[in-house]
């Protein structure tokens, strides 16, 4: 007769965590703190734990890269199914869920993330133009999109990225999108290509803000030719649409490119003269 698997998360009794009788696995925490846990309980949640204990014979797990309170709550959650995921600890829980391939914890992280997005969107709706409140909302939106990038690039979990981009593309008005994009890309030479991708998708048909960012960013990146982010935007935005909808701004951008090219040619010619 087939025995059904345990439905996770389950309540194995929190009193059994850190128990000297059942705790055959030593957990190393920050500051040389230690706990003990049961290999069977951990393995029921995670194929990674299963592989560590039953294939490789490991008797310890290092969680000292994580904040102690998060690591303890993570372990408690594997015993009783209870975790409290908030903005402060979201990245660490998301990382733990991804590293140890714990499906139910990934779902909890997604739900917590969507709840944060929903609260952020509500603030956009409530914002009546106060500068301080608007800045706070943009900082929170930046955090959301940065976490989505971490999920996609570092943890190889693209779902949060896709949902965040889709939601902000649809639910945020053009004026606030434009202001946020300028804020998000304000340090243009240092932004990641993933941040540029997000802004291209969020902007949609609002090509004006992308051309404005491009125009300002070119001067920030000016040096030996076009900078990497200037080049990336030029390669990934719809230049035909830009030319059609914003002809004057389009012309300004390409006049700047021509000036930079002429300046580079002039510097090269002068350098050749000096060498000869």
Q: What keywords describe this structure?
A:
single chain, 276 residues, mainly alpha, three-stranded mixed beta sheet, 13 helices, 66% helix, 4% strand
Structure in words:
By secondary structure, the chain is mainly alpha-helical. It is built from 13 helices and 3 strands. Strands 2-1-3 form a 3-stranded mixed sheet. A hairpin with a 5-residue loop joins β1 and β2 (34-37). α10 runs parallel beside α13 and α12 (239-245) packs across α13. The N and C termini lie far apart (89 Å). Mean pLDDT is 88; it is low at 264-268.
Which series of helices and strands comes N to C?
EEHHEHHHHHHHHHHH
Which bin fits the share of residues in helices? Answer: 55-70%
Radius of gyration: 25 Å
Mean pLDDT: 88
Distance between the termini: 89 Å
Cα shape: elongated
What percent strand? Answer: under 5%
Structural class: mainly alpha
Q: Strand order, biggest sheet?
A: 2-1-3
In short:
By secondary structure, the chain is mostly helical. It has 13 helices and three strands.
List the helices and strands and how they pair.
Elements: E1 25-28, E2 34-37, H1 39-45, H2 47-55, E3 60-62, H3 68-80, H4 90-99, H5 103-126, H6 131-154, H7 159-171, H8 174-184, H9 193-203, H10 207-221, H11 228-236, H12 239-245, H13 247-275
């Amino acid at each position: 007769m087939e025995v059904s698997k345990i439905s996770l998360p389950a309540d194995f009794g929190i009193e059994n965590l850190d128990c000297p009788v059942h705790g055959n696995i030593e957990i190393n925490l920050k500051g040389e703190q230690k706990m003990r846990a049961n290999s069977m309980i951990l393995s029921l949640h995670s194929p990674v734990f299963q592989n560590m204990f039953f294939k490789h014979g490991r008797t310890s797990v290092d969680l000292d890269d994580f904040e102690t309170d998060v690591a303890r709550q993570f372990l408690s959650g594997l015993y009783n199914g209870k975790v409290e995921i908030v903005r402060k600890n979201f990245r660490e829980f998301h990382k733990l869920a991804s590293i140890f391939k714990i499906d139910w914890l990934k779902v909890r992280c997604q739900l917590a993330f969507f709840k944060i997005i929903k609260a952020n969107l509500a603030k956009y709706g409530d914002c009546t133009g106060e500068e301080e409140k608007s800045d706070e909302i943009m900082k929170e939106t930046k955090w959301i999109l940065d976490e989505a990038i971490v999920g996609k690039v570092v943890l190889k979990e693209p779902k949060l990225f896709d949902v965040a981009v889709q939601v902000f593309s649809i639910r945020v008005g053009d004026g606030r999108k434009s202001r946020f994009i300028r804020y998000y890309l304000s340090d243009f030479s240092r932004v990641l290509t993933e941040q540029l991708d997000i802004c291209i998708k969020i902007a949609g048909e609002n090509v004006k803000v992308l051309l404005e960012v491009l125009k300002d960013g070119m001067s920030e990146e000016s040096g030996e030719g076009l900078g990497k982010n200037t080049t990336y935007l030029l390669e990934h935005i719809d230049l035909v649409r830009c030319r059609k909808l914003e002809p004057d701004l389009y012309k300004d951008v390409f006049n700047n490119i021509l000036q930079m090219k002429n300046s580079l040619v002039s510097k090269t010619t002068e350098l050749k003269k000096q060498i000869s």
